[in-house]
Amino acid sequence: MTRDTIMIGLGFAGLAVLAAAAALAWAAQAVVRALVPILVPILAGFRAPVRLVPRRLHPLLDPARAELPGIATLGVLLIASLWLLFGVMQDLIAGDPLVHADHAVLHLLLSLRVGWAVRLAVGWSALGSGAVVVALEIGIVLWLDRQRAWRAMAYAITAAIGAILFTAGLDVALDRPAPFLRPTGLSLLPFPGTHLAVLTALLGFMGVVICRTIGAVGRIAVVAAMLVFLTGLLAARLYLGADYLSTALETVAFGAAWAALLGFAYLVHPAEAVRPAGLGVAILLLILGVGGVSGALDQRAALRDATLAHGSLIMSRSIWLHGGWARLPRRSLSLLGDYSRPFPVQFLGAPRVLRRDLTDHGWHPPPPWNAATLLRFFGIGTPPGALPVMPRFDDGRLPALVLIRTGGTLPANRRLVFRLWRSPVLVPSRTGGFARIWLGAVSLERIGHPGSIMALPQEVRSHGEARHCLIRALGAPITVARADGHTPLRLAFVTPSRTDAP
């Protein structure tokens, strides 16, 4: 599976997220409109729900309010945001897989760097820089002050201050290091995720202010514009390594929840004259103008920082062979932060050497992914060797070498799959350069036919047979026994004498 295919898949996934968010917002308003005829006599007759909330929020439950669908949408947004926020914070505090997924996603996005995408991400990231945040806050305050909408102005200031305090407190409490890449241009707010939190809270609340007095078409346009801008900003900062995934999720979730809470408080009071069309245009011009100037001034430095690569670790051959191997990962790390397959092989040298050794023992490359091979999954009698191999990641990296083996003592519906990933460790070679250590995993797959509709590779949990078959095919391995928990493993070091070239 190529890098371009993954990027296309991520693009479609982003569009699916936007479509799901828009569908949820539309569904919430549609449900409220359908329930209003039923709720009006209930709320008017019994008033029971009103007694369950503070007196100052009673106007929000007035069945005669035309803003009831919008209030319901804010309620859905608040519940979803708080659920995401508390879920992410629980994972971070408990050290759950999300912590490991941060690094896996960061490494995956680093491997997907292409020139046009980097330039696009740098430009979009500049639209959410510290200069834009400060200019946007000042511009909104001046506009609302001129319109004498002082209540909305106070809430806008509160939105920004609350987001800054949250990110600062979270950074102090968790004491997490920021990603090693910081290609964000001018940054006036030093805490990780502050830009996303402030922009989400500020734009979310201003969306409530603007949408309160405009029609349905205008509301859809405002909500769509905010979703596209914030989603693009989040994706750009993740792609450039400016924020970890967990940081981005928790700050956006807090910003959305904070905006919803302030929106509820603001809707209790009568609407203020803010000239919503002019306010929306002013916000758009500030983002594009200040962000464009900031990006143009800092584009060269941002592009240079965006090309930085994560440094490698240096380890001598002697140290590696006499215990240094234990410092390398023992299992592969998935994009979800889970450790799965064990690494029975650490290989020093060039992958082409290992490919030649395994090819001599019956291993061969799998078919590539294309339209023709994709149709083979819908053939009941397709042999295992004719099916492409499912992509697997280790710490966000695709394997550099994939080989399969069929036949021999294996049943007709099974195959062995060997994957080789790069490690961050380099070993000085005898020729004066460096050779990389590679991590190999092997799995046994059974080709199932669920519902007699398609062929589906399913990994067999027992790795023993596959591991021994692989080690027997390696040339001159050094094997050592180690215990990984309660499961004994055999770790084979392969040091080919033919070449040490990386």
From TrEMBL:
InterPro entries: LssY-like-C_dom, PAP2/HPO_sf. It comes from the Bacteria. Signal peptide: none annotated. Keywords: Membrane, Transmembrane, Transmembrane helix. It holds the Pfam family LssY_C. The chain crosses the membrane at residues 37-54, 66-86, 116-142, 154-174, 194-214, 221-240, 252-269, 276-297. Residues 327-445 form the LssY-like C-terminal domain. This is LssY C-terminal domain-containing protein. It comes from Acidiphilium acidophilum.
